[in-house]
Amino acid sequence: QVQLVESGGGSVQAGGSLRLSCAIIGYTYSANCMGWFRQAPGKEREHIAAVDTVGGSMYYADSVKGRFTVSQDNAKNMVYLQMNNLKPEDTAIYYCAADYRLDCSSRPADFHYWGQGTQVTVSS
Hints:
The chain has strands at about 5, 10-15, 20-25, 35-40, 45-50, 60, 70-75, 80-85, 90-100, 115, 120-124. The chain is mostly beta strands.
């Protein structure tokens, strides 16, 4: 059973930075895609970033492009989300997720495992 554990959330002022970490525990083989999602109160879960763990390609939603960077450390079984120039609209619970299909999807239903989420709050 794969377990994903996020950390690194917190409260920052607008313009600040946070780095989220996702530890991948208990896997027998690596997921082909690791994604980051976020969900704000009253809104649907939003796919914001992903990394193809095999080819190394990265995906970013327009809402975070140029500000967020996803990376992976295969030796440590970690995935990261560096978030810079944070805005109040980035306030949400952030989740990492693992997709074992052949391609990277943006649909939450396609991801097989999820972390518990970590709260990010950005004040103006």
